[in-house]
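Hi W.,

Here's what went into the run:
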Amino acid sequence: MGGDAGPAVVVPGAAIALERHPGVTFLLFGDEGRIAPHLLEHPALLTRSRIIHTDAVVEMRDKPSQALRRGRGSSMWLAVEAVHKGEADFVVSAGNTGALMAMARLVLTPMVGIERPAIAGQWPTLTGACIVLDLGANIGATAAQLAEFALMGAAMARAVLHIERPRVGLLNIGVEEIKGIEEVKQAHAWLKENELPIDYIGFVEGDQIGQGIADVIVVEGFAGNIALKTAEGTAKQMAAWVREALSGSIAAQVGAFLAQQGLRALKDRMDPRRFNGGPFLGLNGIAIKSHGGTDALGFASAIEVGYDMAESRVVERLASDLDALHGKLGEPQQARGSS
Amino acid sequence: MGGDAGPAVVVPGAAIALERHPGVTFLLFGDEGRIAPHLLEHPALLTRSRIIHTDAVVEMRDKPSQALRRGRGSSMWLAVEAVHKGEADFVVSAGNTGALMAMARLVLTPMVGIERPAIAGQWPTLTGACIVLDLGANIGATAAQLAEFALMGAAMARAVLHIERPRVGLLNIGVEEIKGIEEVKQAHAWLKENELPIDYIGFVEGDQIGQGIADVIVVEGFAGNIALKTAEGTAKQMAAWVREALSGSIAAQVGAFLAQQGLRALKDRMDPRRFNGGPFLGLNGIAIKSHGGTDALGFASAIEVGYDMAESRVVERLASDLDALHGKLGEPQQARGSS
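Here's what came out:
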């Protein structure tokens, strides 16, 4: 069990998830001596959990390549392997992102025709939430990969947002006639022309993500990661300013007290724990990355994402969608490898 | 005169700028019949302005290539040409961004060794403001171009933020050992190793921009534009939520009334008009793009950016900085062209 707090967050997080979905059972991978005391505090969870003990851990500072070489037998490895073996429907980890990605890719293997799995995430919008991908599994993306991301994101939107035919937008910039966005333009043409199980709405700019203009936003991983982090930073910056505005004088403090109900709702809306849980999409199995610094409630959200994805049989559905896409793009799937 | 409102914004904007800097004189390019009535409302400005009449305009919908072909003699062209001829110290336009960029590049020409001018902008932070570039003049950037952006942004920070040795950060993503950021890594190595007139602080992630961790943030134009737009969108989204939180009940409305002073300060802090005015950097002359939808106060901010840059002789200083950089990178400047 990874993350900043290990079992102290993961176990109570699982307990919250169990309250929401009483039919779930849990495999808890890690140091039994550290897990058990927390588990004893949650009797209901205790009866529905099995601890798979291991001393081996992937450290937060390990590089993905080190984790792959030395991490076999670690809690992370065993948890991912349990999904591959069909012993678990999905894996959730708050540990080392790069290591989890590398292990998930190696053990679960990419779907046929998928070169690059993506990391997706939920993004709070004025109207609810949308899915954004890729958030940094890879840098850059070909037109075909962007088209694949569209279907991968749509599969997640179906599972998590419960929208059967999600509106999908392609993140682009507004400047005309400049070099270098050939991939984005080509993906745009493909998504527009082909009959796919999505409602493709065209190009979207960065300021439209939060408006809820689309259910799925597709972008290559460098810009996607920067967009996500920038939005998080801006939200924090604004929250600091709002706090300052509401504490600068006695009158402001009284005002904040009077408005506390609305302000609490605002805080809840922005609560990153509600949107925690980023799946790796494009693999033959479900692996969810939880933020390393989240708490039990946040970890429960990440479990919820995995639960919804497993429930909606996202992998099977996505496999058939991708098959149809590759047929339309006329690309020999085999030639693209599944390394 | 371009932008959504033309002379109705540009002329009163110039009047505000003149109040701040009484020594400035203005060349106003456009339709005299439309400009003159506005000018008559500002007697002080009238005595320090000259209208250069032209009927030809670059339309907001014109593509840059069309603007270059048909736009000679337009107000935009003549204004840029005035800078080239030394008749003006800088040009500010609220018109078509792509056209302005194309004309500025063609007429002012890039500095020796600069392949790609960049668009820079001011970004409000918790501690004041920082400069971010490239905001979309080009997609992608080589390591050498990123290093050039660092110096270009530093020159602007010196002029506009009045910081002699700006802290410069390179925008990157936190995921280790992934492909495709060779350019960013190489630029990082160069900036770290070479003695340059900046305080290079290393990699910065998207959530650190608004914290004011650096005075200059360097990124290629696609991700830079997306970051900017995403931050703008997030700020608007949060503002909508705050408004909602402070109007949902009578108590909240009274609270907002009591906190109005702080809330007004908050609004002022976020006011995009204060940060309006994005220069094209890397050209032999100063050209500033104002937001097309801004008002007089916003246009005055854009003039202020040009004024500060001209005052600090940013072009001359930057030319010598770039010269030093190219010497250190050991690249033959001539070979890189200045198309």
